[in-house]
Specification:
Length: 220
């Protein structure tokens, strides 16, 4: 038994040593696709939002990364295609700056929030169910049936212009593993909290969410 444990420990050390010898960009990619043996503080600059980047462990992607040819780069942009995913990784002075990668997460959050508003206005129950953790907790205030013009194409550009403001603090988010946004719908802001389930972001509706559509129906 002691020999088996010793061998396991030796293999673990060898694996960690091998990972540490890889370019930081390659290690960062592994981190994003769910590898659990990456010391991310040694790979990229510190940020409270780093928890947002990794998804569920993707064994196919991790296997593809093994064969990915990424050369060491002290500073600059490394980009390429992994399966159907396009990646951009910036290194500065030997470490990854996760700014580009986090920006894509923030953009995804904005799109999720705006799609939620769109589905509430169009009263598309299937879309709502796909985006929230509990569709039964979403309450929509407004006329039933079609939107006021009867044509959702009119409202898409309006919804796209709505500001989506992060209202939670990054340090608190790192602890709760959630992130909260506000959207100015009418006189009151709509507050939505996002949670991550594996690789999928959803709107947390474990508590009731009241969506007022008055903004879209007013005449002035």
């Amino acid at each position: 038994m002691n020999k088996i444990l010793g061998l396991f420990a030796l293999l673990t050390v060898a694996s960690c040593t091998s990972r540490a010898a890889e370019p930081v960009a390659k290690q960062f990619l592994r981190f994003i696709y769910g590898a659990d043996d990456i010391q991310i503080s040694n790979v990229c600059y510190a940020t409270d939002d780093i928890w947002m980047l990794p998804g569920a462990k993707n064994t196919n992607a991790l296997a593809a990364i093994d064969n990915l040819k990424i050369t060491s780069k002290t500073s600059g942009i490394t980009s390429g295609l992994l399966g159907h995913d396009l990646y951009f990784i910036e290194t500065r002075d030997g470490k990854v700056d996760p700014g580009f990668n986090l920006d894509s997460i923030y953009f995804m959050h904005r799109q999720l929030v705006l799609r939620f508003i769109y589905s509430a206005l169009s009263q598309n129950q299937q879309m709502l169910r796909d985006m929230v953790t509990d569709a039964g907790k979403v309450k929509i205030d407004g006329p039933k049936g079609a939107p006021p013009s009867g044509d959702m194409d009119v409202y898409e550009p309006i919804i796209a212009q709505l500001p989506v403001l992060r209202s939670s603090k990054s340090r608190d988010d790192a602890k709760s593993k959630t992130i909260t946004y506000r959207v100015p719908l009418g006189e009151d802001a709509l507050t939505l909290t996002l949670v991550k389930d594996g690789s999928t972001w959803k709107i947390d509706s474990s508590k009731s969410i009241q969506v007022s559509l008055e903004f879209f129906y007013r005449t002035n």
